[in-house]
Amino acid sequence: MAANIVTMKKIIQQLRLEASINRVKVSQAATDLQQFCLQNAQHDPLLTGMSSSNNPFRPQKVCSFL
Amino acid sequence: MCDQTFMAATFGPCDSCGKASPLMNIYIKSEAINYCSFCVEMMACQQLQKGETLQSLKKESDSLKKKLEEERGKLNDVELHQVAEKVEVLSSLSIKTRRVLKGHGNKVLCVDWCKDKRRLVSSSQDGKAIVWDAFTLNKEHGVTLPCTWVMACAYAPSGCAVACGGLDNKCSVVPLSLDKNENLAAKKKSVAMHTNYVSGCTFTNSDMQLLTSSGDGTCALWDVESGQLLQSFHGHTADVLSLDLAPSETGNTFVSGGCDMKANVWDMRSGQNIQSFESHESDINCVRYYPSGDAFASASDDATCRFYDLRADREVAVYQKDSVIFGASSVDFSLSGRLLFAGYNDYTINVWDVLKGTRVSILFGHENRVSRVRVSPDGTALCSASWDNTLRIWA
User: Fold this and answer.
1) Which branch of life, at top level (chain A) (predicted)?
2) How many A×B Cβ pairs under 8 Å?
């Protein structure tokens, strides 16, 4: 049908576009992802576990009146 | 040589429309084309290239798809978890529930943090959106919306407004006022208009533009002030359930996922679908960018979460376990991107090691499905929204 032809042409155009993009090897991409994780690991409170004094959500130490 | 076209009369099903009728058997570039006379005229009017038929187009589409798979496959020289073998195994996490936010009368469907790292907005099936102070458990604002099932809510970057939408097919922006007596619902402004429910919304880098995803299969970018549609994004073939904006300052791309099992990456300015990923086996409920912006994760009803790298243009990890059989509804990354928090329909939150592909921890506590998980902007806490009418803060 005519409608199918138009849809198919759109699909083909989209596929051509997607096939033409520049790609990087997975080894390279994976290394970069890993590097990002490791670089930012110390600044990640959920990963390292912040101490009670810094994390506003963790229970505070009991404070006594002076 | 001679390229004459022969015309011979036969009767049978037309190659193009399938109807049985007298056919004109034409040979174009020595390929036999058996069209009925109507389709021959249509072909001429549509200016099809010589030799293009539905079959040839289909063949081209299939060969392009195969070529795409091959190109992607060529670069798959190693798996992510293999590259990450040398990375230290994570020690056990001490994440526990620190706050329980009670107040909604029905299932909590969505939550979003404010940039000030302590306020949250949550929306519920009861038709209300509540702004909370997560430190003190104070409810700062409550907005009643005219419809139930408010599936999407978002905090504006300035902290001065919230957007919410759902079954009313609209997304409205409500300015937050410090005046307790002011009726917030009166100042509500409808910004987005879709032809089906609004499943997700987010402000772009400013309070001025809103990006929405909808059950009508499209995503759209709106100007908040005028309500004008700035750009619409077509390409999904079923409901779009989730979207996420790329984290970079200059970024103008976003990713969306939907019931057609596809995750699409879009260019906001041109409306063009730049990349598409189809490896899930069921609806994609949530998509979320990796903090560096080079990758994104998705959660699906097929009980897996998957990790896609944008530069390699392929899936690089699958987070699944035989014991995990319920659909995943939501995902979010920790600040460094090492942990992936995923909320499931079996009431738990699984914490996955993004690099190694293993599960690090399970967070128990909710008494019904987890509908949304969100890490706070400074990474100190995780907020989860659930069908048990509560939200929990984990840290």
Assistant:
1) Eukaryota
2) 175
Q: What is the DSSP string of B264-283?
A: EEEETTT--EEEEE---SS-
* pLDDT, tens digit (0-9, with 9 covering 90-100), for B43-81: 776 655 545 677 788 888 888 888 888 888 888 888 888
B270 contact A CB<8A: no
Using a CB-CB cut-off of 8 Å, the residues of chain B touching A58 are 98, 395
Chain A interface, Cβ < 8 Å to B: 1-2, 4-5, 8-9, 11-12, 14-19, 21, 23-34, 36-41, 43-47, 49-50, 55-59
Q: How far is B326 from chain A (nearest CA, A)?
A: 25
CATH, domain range B95-394:
2.130.10.10
pTM: 0.84
Residues B289-330: tens digit of each pLDDT: 999 999 999 999 999 999 999 999 999 999 999 999 999 999
ipTM > 0.85, yes or no: no
Which of B33, B36, B64, B65 is the best residue to mutate to test the A interface, defined by the most A CB atoms within 10 Å of its own CB?
A: B64
* CB within 8 Å of B166: residues ≥ 6 apart: B109, B123, B145, B147, B148, B149, B150, B151, B152, B197, B198
